[in-house]
Design a protein that fits this description.
The complex is a heterodimer of chains A (250) and B (166). Chain A has 250 residues and is mostly helical. Chain A is built from eleven helices and no strands. In chain A, helix 2 (33-61) packs antiparallel against helix 6, helix 5 (92-113) packs antiparallel against helix 6 (119-147) and helix 5 runs antiparallel to helix 9 (194-207). The radius of gyration of chain A is 18 Å and the shape is globular. The relative contact order of chain A is 0.15. The mean pLDDT of chain A is 96. Chain B is of the alpha/beta class and 166 residues long. In chain B, the strands form three sheets. A four-stranded mixed beta sheet of chain B has the order 1-4-5-6. A four-stranded mixed beta sheet of chain B has the order 7-10-9-8. Chain B has a two-stranded antiparallel ribbon with strand order 2-3. In chain B, a hairpin with a 2-residue loop joins strand 2 (20-21) and strand 3. The model of chain B has no long low-confidence stretch (mean pLDDT 92). At the A-B interface, helix 2 and helix 6 of A face loops of B.
Chain lengths: 250, 166
Amino acid sequence: MKENLYNYILGIADNSLILGQRMGELCGHGPSLETDIACTNISLDLFGQVRSYFQYAAKIAGDNRTEDDIAMLRKEREYKNVLLVEQPNTNFAYTIGRQFLFDVYHLAFLSELQNSQDLTLSAIANKCIKEVSYHERFSSDWVKRLGDGTEESNQKMQDAINDLWTYTDELFHQTEADKMMVSEGIGVDVTKLKDGFYERVNTLLAEANLQIPESKWFQKGGKEGIHTEHLGYLLSELQYMQRTYPNMEW
Amino acid sequence: MTATEQHIDQILIPILEQVSDPEIPVLSIMDMGVVRSAIINNDIVKVEITPTYSGCPAMDVIGDDIKKALKDAGYKSSIDLILHPAWTTDWITPRGRKALEDYGIAAPLEAEADKDVLLNEKRLVKCTNCGSQNTRLVSQFGSTACKAQFQCDDCQEPFDYFKCLK
């Protein structure tokens, strides 16, 4: 089995899986019907993307593993998503801030992944990027609306950005699997996406009447499986049915 | 194979045209452009379909419906989901666009115009009820992943708009 490629794919897919679960939590709980539907549509897109990645990973694993096993039956430390995506839906400003920061990264990442020497990954990227450009349009539009809205909405949006900022640097950390895959022309060199990311984010924050956070201290660990306390709770809900009724199917 | 080329055995076309998108029943999967190839080989039809959106729950149903339609016509079949080349709204046929409009879903605009209407900066989507262009965005996301919600400011009709995907 191609161990590095397998781990590399999981690293990409786990971000979409965990963020998809977070957005799915808003089903029936969005601040208005339209945003509720938007958040769950984004969740659906992300889960669809995850299926493509996990189906491919299961094929590479070459044993009896299925996409569902990979999604549902790992332990917390085996999930390699970045800390940003597991942060909770504290309020709508957090939901939008988290989505916006991830979308800007995700767009840049997929744009590069389209050039991967691995034809399956490049095809998935080519498919996903069209959907993600809609996500980015939605989230950046809302950052502007809240930032440039009332005093209260501006404050809430600013608080969310300030709190989530500490998780942005991790997006650009390279794992061992990353380095191997970059050297083989399969993976994306995320270190090269950093400048473009902060440029785009800072421009939009300025447009939205928001301050760029000054903090230079960043949190990390998700890519090595060391998560914030929030992931355990998220997984217990995500995995509930498979843990309670092992091997159940619809 | 170029990005838009399809390989479909002529004899299979009428069968596949009977299968429709479960969420938009007036639209056949052929007019939708999701069937990329259908070839008879040793009595088995090998069909390749491509998803409109990654998470589209209709794809599993479409696969089952194709199998059933082919079985009724006396063929065994195998269905493969392919991702490349990625589906685009350009593959919806003129007949498909008309079917959408008749059903109450505005057909996709070109990419630039699509961006303008989805940021509510221009009024370009024609109301499917009265034809007025005095329409506005209600929500960038609609009842399914492929649609947005609009409302006509003349006749007040709310309707879906099929988003451009390129």
